[in-house]
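Worked Example 4.2. Consider the chain below.
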Amino acid sequence: MEWNQPERPVHTLATAAKATGKSRTAIWRAIKSGKVSYKKDLDGHIQIDPAELHRVYPPVTQDRAGNVCLLYTSDAADE
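Applying the procedure from the previous section yields the following structure tokens:
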């Protein structure tokens, strides 16, 4: 029996945008340009591996005031 469940957590366009502080359009453009790879599930929904996403865009979080903050910085994020 085949399940329509990912083996490990993945991002959708919406969750990828929230995790990076970017827009869904920006994530989609990165996918279409080949900067971020993705797969589709059995229903045709986009699935983005978190490691693949954060290779290009660093993860962010929000403070109590709702301000977006980088979780870490690296030289790669500056490029």
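The CA atoms of residues 20 and 59 lie 5 Å apart. The mean pLDDT is 83. Compare this with Example 4.1 before moving on.
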